[in-house]
Amino acid sequence: MTNLERRLPWIITALALLAAVAGYVASRIVFSPGTHALPLAGTLLYPEPRPLPDFRLQRDDGSALTQADWRGRWRLLFFGFTHCPDVCPTTLATAKAALAALRKDHPDARVAVSFVSVDPERDTPDKLGAYVHFFDPAFEAATGTQEQLQALTRALWVVYEKVPGTGGPGDYSIDHSASLLLIDPQGRLVGQMRPPQRADVIAADLALLIQNAPE
Q1: Is residue 34 part of a domain?
Q2: For residue 69, what is the domain's CATH number?
Q3: Which residue of 25, 115, 122, 202 is most buried, as measured by CB atoms within 10 A?
Q4: Residue 95 belongs to what domain range?
């Protein structure tokens, strides 16, 4: 039995749990009496903000990244890896275009983008930084040990799984969640933007969220 086959029941269970959570969240948003919903076209807001756990990762420049650093502005958060053939570069390019569209009408909008690699084995700090900053020098790049990453991803309902290839230990891919997570200025998980993401939709949703955020 291969490693993937051994892990398959866990993967199925995790995906089923995520589906159940998503269904519960959607039902709360749509059917809860008195729930005020903004006319968001591409963002699923959770019924209640979810505080982030304490965590410690490493930025590409070697400095520490902690929960306190994700306060003070809206943030788009994505988990991926630099060898990703399609989803990761597409998502980062879309995020860049979304922020450019947002700032045309809202030049003072404070929105950051963070990319966290779930492949610390191959994504060294210099490689990770070069990859992410190719899309935008202002984007944040970070990673950590598997223990650090798993503690954070589990708290955020993000799943990822190493998929071995046929070319030896270094030949593998990673299946991972493809949603952009939305962090509010208080450093809380408040929602997600599920694929397929569109830059104009993300920009419009962010503008609504910023304009309607409590003072």
Answers
A1: no
A2: 3.40.30.10
A3: 115
A4: 40-212
**CA-to-CA separations, 30 to 33, 45, 196, in angstroms, rounded:** 9, 11, 21
- Which CA distances in Å does 44 have to 97, 171, 177, 193? 20, 35, 15, 6
Q: Has residue 20 been placed in a domain?
A: no
Q: Which two tokens stand for residue 119?
A: 């492949």
From CA 12, how far away is CA 159, in angstroms rounded?
A: 11
Q: Using one digit for the tens of pLDDT, what is the confidence trace for 35-66?
A: 247 899 999 999 999 999 999 999 999 999 99
Q: Which long-range contacts (CB under 8 A, 24 or more apart) does 126-132 make?
A: 126/60, 127/82, 128/60, 128/82, 129/60, 129/61, 131/82, 132/60, 132/92
Report how far apart, in Å, the C-alpha atoms of 144 and of each of 79, 113, 161, 170, 178 are. 12, 17, 16, 18, 19
Rounded Cα gap, residues 195 and 178, in angstroms: 7
Residue 185's nearest CA partner among 40, 68, 97 is 68
pTM reported for the whole predicted model: 0.83
Total structural domains within the chain: 1
56 in any annotated domain: yes
